[in-house]
Amino acid sequence: MAKIKPSKGAPYARILGVGGYRPTRVVPNEVILEKIDSSDEWIRSRSGIATRHWADDQETVTVMSVEAAGKAIADAGIAPSEIDAVVVSTVSHFKQTPAVATEIAHLVGAGKPAAFDISAGCAGFGYGLTLAKGMVVDGSAEHVLVIGVERLSDLTDHEDRATAFLFGDGAGAVVVGPSDVPAIGRTVWGSEGDKSETIKQTTSWAEYRDGHPEKFPAITQEGQAVFRWAVFEMAKVAQQALEAAGITAEDLDVFIPHQANMRIIDSMVKTLKLPEHVTVARDIETTGNTSAASIPLAMERLLATGEAKSGDTALVIGFGAGLVYAATVVTLP
């Protein structure tokens, strides 16, 4: 039997650069209230959201991704041609094939990299980051572009009082490359498929095609069930990620959870007993829930505002439809 030569890449991987894109249109709660019976106070108290960004016709999944990717590549200090793989996490690119990653790769000038899409909802960035780390360490890629992008305004029922205010649009990207020291911890990830009905698309594309029902599919969720799961179960996952990285909450500089709900974020901070010195991402107030884009967008904003700095140790965790989750500890670029 022939022996296969072992693959070997960099000893470790790290995030080299980050970039984000938020659509130009800012949508305050007052606009949401035009179609639902609620109030600005109720929306803020339930979710912490004051505004969100909605894409216009020109701000497609591709366009937003290219903008975010360009910033991440520049921040990483590499040329676009040095990108060896492109991983895009999204649930709101409405073409089943080809993968939008291939178009993005071409438009950013990456040459002929491996390119594919993944669907892991709000945990998608964590899944993409884990795949990228594996590629760099394995040696199948030296630089990997990971993008989380959503146009959730397209999948929002704007008359649903429970979800109409939640979702926003945007794209966040990072470049993952080689490192001489550990800078991306072991990912704690998984799924709980018995809860798959908790967050879902209301109907399939086939059902919509056949006119049953006539209303365009939207994202729906069982709010209280999601809240309980996120607060109690995801705090455990976050703790496991800390342990996997060999650190404690005291060693953290930054906490970047998926921007699902301000109450969930605050409850996780309390459950994890994070020290006061830890900077907590609360980008949801002005960006809303952007699913796969939320973690890189929040990371980019913290670094841009100086609330976090290069070299900081950050705990990131995403969780959502599936139900799926992914948590890891990273060194910020």
TrEMBL record:
GO biological process, one term: fatty acid biosynthetic process
Pfam families documented for this protein: ACP_syn_III, ACP_syn_III_C
Source species: Streptomyces gougerotii
Subunit structure and binding partners: Homodimer.
Keywords: Acyltransferase, Cytoplasm, Fatty acid biosynthesis, Fatty acid metabolism, Lipid biosynthesis, Lipid metabolism, Multifunctional enzyme, Transferase
Name the record gives this protein: Beta-ketoacyl-[acyl-carrier-protein] synthase III
UniProt similarity note: Belongs to the thiolase-like superfamily. FabH family.
Sequence ranges assigned to domain Beta-ketoacyl-[acyl-carrier-protein] synthase III C-terminal in this UniProt record: 242-331
Pathway: Lipid metabolism; fatty acid biosynthesis
Segments forming domain Beta-ketoacyl-[acyl-carrier-protein] synthase III N-terminal: 116-193
Catalytic class of the enzyme: transferase
Function description: Catalyzes the condensation reaction of fatty acid synthesis by the addition to an acyl acceptor of two carbons from malonyl-ACP. Catalyzes the first condensation reaction which initiates fatty acid synthesis and may therefore play a role in governing the total rate of fatty acid production. Possesses both acetoacetyl-ACP synthase and acetyl transacylase activities. Its substrate specificity determines the biosynthesis of branched-chain and/or straight-chain of fatty acids.
Annotated spans, ACP-binding: 259-263
Catalytically driven reaction(s): malonyl-[ACP] + acetyl-CoA + H(+) = 3-oxobutanoyl-[ACP] + CO2 + CoA
Annotated NCBIfam families: fabH, PRK09352.1
Active site positions: C122, H258, N289
